[in-house]
């Protein structure tokens, strides 16, 4: 079958403003949107720019807006858009465009980094590994699936109203280490989360949860951290 695409094109070095360009490719219903993009680039227009690597929902590099919804191009199939005359591909919202579907991820990673997304041991390292109970690990099972694709952050309406909000992906990583039973920085992590632009701007739109390709309960995790702050820092503002 022939599948029509309308793709956002913008090269800040050359173009005054963005434009949309249409393409038509032959594809099977079970092929991925990423397969179609590759075909467009390899067979029709080598100037089209987008990120991809694993093509299997692991690397998180091909997050984009597909028919208005943030998703991974390698996880969505042509048949998912069978009702659309034309499939619209745009860069992740909120992010600055570097070229076409490629966005600048530096600020996104800096936000995640601000949550200190690494294990800070409570005690000197043991002889072998740091053991963790099955129960303690269960608490992290959902959030450790995060592949940093930024779909949640692009979809969050609060990011557009308040660009200082740290965003859902950074909070997913904050959760991962807040509830690591071996981490020694719980108090400091809660203080960081209690800052005005950490958990509190989230108003439960659930967009992040809806779009997460790894089905992480993002909003639920944020709400759980809010409750934890209220419990442990009674004088917290909210
Ligand atoms: S639940 Fe919170 S983080 Fe997620 S989209 Fe809504 S406001 Fe943004
Ligand atoms: S929480 Fe989900 S949507 Fe957000 S960056 Fe991680 S994998 Fe992507
Ligand atoms: S290309 Fe790696 S997640 Fe889609």
How would you explain this protein's 3D organization?
The mean pLDDT is 96. This protein is 31% helix and 14% strand. It contains 9 helices and 7 strands, in the order ββαβββββαααααααα. By secondary structure, the chain is α+β, with helices and mostly antiparallel strands. The strands form 2 sheets. The protein has a 5-stranded mixed beta sheet. Strands 6-7 form a two-stranded antiparallel ribbon. The protein has helices spanning 33-44, 106-113, 134-138, 151-155, 157-161, 168-178, 186-193, 207-211, 218-232; strands spanning 2-9, 19-26, 63-66, 69-72, 87-90, 97-99, 102-103. Helix 2 packs parallel to helix 6 (168-178) and helix 6 (168-178) runs antiparallel to helix 7 (186-193). The chain folds into 2 domains: 2-103, Beta-grasp domain (Ubiquitin-like (UB roll), Roll), CATH 3.10.20; 106-232, Fumarate Reductase Iron-sulfur Protein, Chain B, domain 2, CATH 1.10.1060.10. Residues 156, 158, 168, 202-208, 218-219, 222 line the site of one iron/sulfur cluster (SF4).
Short description:
With 238 residues, the chain is of the alpha+beta class. Helix content is 31%, strand content 14%. It has helices at residues 33-44, 106-113, 134-138, 151-155, 157-161, 168-178, 186-193, 207-211, 218-232; strands at residues 2-9, 19-26, 63-66, 69-72, 87-90, 97-99, 102-103.
